[in-house]
Design goal:
Length: 302
C-alpha cells in the first residue's frame, strides 16, 4: 500500500524514539500487519544508526549518580504528609420566610443554541506540522552527520571506528624490463666432399644448441639407396650414426646433444651410401665417400 508523509514521519519518529506510549503502540500495531511499513521503520533505523556509530559511549562520573540519589532522597523527606479535610458541620434549619408581595414572573427567555466546535482538523494539522518538523530535523541531522563523517574520513580517519575507516588503496605497478638480447653463439661449418673436389654437402653446427643442419649441394642418392651421416672420433670405439640425410635440400637434427663440445669440434664427419632407410646394424656397411671437419665461421660472443 502507498504510505503518506505522515506515515513516513511516524516511522522516523519511532526510530528516533520521540513518540509517546500511545503513538508507539500505534506504530507497532501497523508494523504487525503491514510489512511495507515495517521496512520503512527499519530503513530509518539503519540511517539513524550511523549517528550512534559516530558517537562513542561516555560513562558518567560517580559523583553524578551520587547527586541524583541525594536529590531523590531530599525530595522524599520534604514531602508533606497527606491530611484529609474535616467534614463540614450539619446545616441549620432556615427560618420561615416573610410574606412578600406577589410579582408576576417574566416569560422565560429562550437560551441561544450552543454551537458545537469541531477541533479535529486543528489537532490533525498540528500533528502533521509536528511530524514534518521532526522529519526536517532528522534530515538535517543526517546531512550534518554525513558531512562530518566525510570530513573525518579525509582529515582524521583514525578517529572513526574500524568499520567506518576508509580502506587503504594499494596500486600495483608492473614494470616490464626488456628481455636481454640473445648472445650469439659460435657457428661451425664442414664441407663434406671427396678428394678436395666440389662439396656434396655442407654441415652447419650451432655450438650453443648442438643442433646441426645438412644442406645437399651436389649429391643425389641412387634409387633404393640412402645417404647416412656419421661422426668419427678417436674418443669413440666406433663411428656413431647421425641419421639418414633426407631427400630435401636441408636436413636438421639435434642428435649432437649426446656429445661434448671437444668431441664435436675435433671429429670427422663422413657420409656413406647405405640401403634405403640407413644401415640396419648401426655400423657403416661401406667406405665413406664424402668427409670433412668443422671450422669455426662465427666466434662466440665474449
Amino acid at each position: 500500500m502507498a504510505h503518506s508523509e505522515d506515515h513516513i514521519a511516524l516511522a522516523a519518529e519511532y526510530a528516533l524514539g520521540t513518540l509517546d506510549a500511545d503513538e508507539r503502540a500505534q506504530v507497532e500495531t501497523m508494523m504487525a500487519v503491514d510489512t511495507e511499513f515495517t521496512a520503512i521503520v527499519h530503513a530509518w533505523e539503519h540511517r539513524l544508526g550511523v549517528l550512534n556509530q559516530m558517537v562513542g559511549s561516555i560513562e558518567p562520573r560517580p559523583i553524578v549518580w551520587e547527586n541524583i540519589k541525594a536529590a531523590i532522597g531530599h525530595s522524599t523527606e520534604q514531602q508533606a504528609p497527606l491530611v484529609l479535610p474535616e467534614a463540614p458541620p450539619p446545616p441549620q434549619p432556615a427560618p420561615p420566610p416573610a410574606e412578600e408581595p406577589v410579582v408576576a414572573e417574566a416569560p422565560p427567555v429562550a437560551a441561544a443554541p450552543s454551537v458545537a466546535v469541531d477541533n479535529s482538523n486543528v489537532v490533525q494539522l498540528t500533528g502533521r506540522v509536528r511530524r514534518l518538523r521532526s522529519v526536517a530535523s532528522i534530515a538535517t541531522a543526517l546531512a550534518a552527520a554525513l558531512v562530518a563523517m566525510l570530513a573525518v574520513q579525509v582529515y582524521r580517519p583514525e578517529l572513526l571506528p574500524e568499520a567506518l575507516r576508509p580502506k587503504p588503496r594499494i596500486q600495483t605497478v608492473e614494470v616490464k624490463t626488456p628481455a636481454p638480447s640473445p648472445v650469439p653463439s659460435a657457428q661451425y661449418v664442414a664441407l663434406l666432399q671427396r678428394d678436395a673436389g666440389s662439396p656434396a654437402f655442407i654441415l652447419t653446427v650451432d655450438a650453443a644448441t648442438k643442433n646441426f643442419t645438412v644442406r645437399k649441394v651436389g649429391a643425389d642418392a641412387e634409387p633404393g639407396k640412402s645417404f647416412e651421416l656419421w661422426l668419427i672420433s678417436d674418443r669413440l670405439p666406433q663411428p656413431r650414426s647421425l641419421g639418414v640425410i633426407g631427400g630435401s635440400d636441408f636436413t636438421a637434427r639435434p642428435v649432437l646433444a649426446d656429445f661434448d663440445a671437444g668431441t664435436i669440434n675435433a671429429a670427422t664427419y663422413a657420409v656413406t651410401v647405405e640401403q634405403a632407410g640407413g644401415s640396419p646394424s648401426g655400423r657403416p656397411t661401406s667406405a665413406p665417400i664424402y668427409t670433412g671437419k668443422l671450422i669455426e665461421t662465427v666466434p662466440a660472443a665474449r
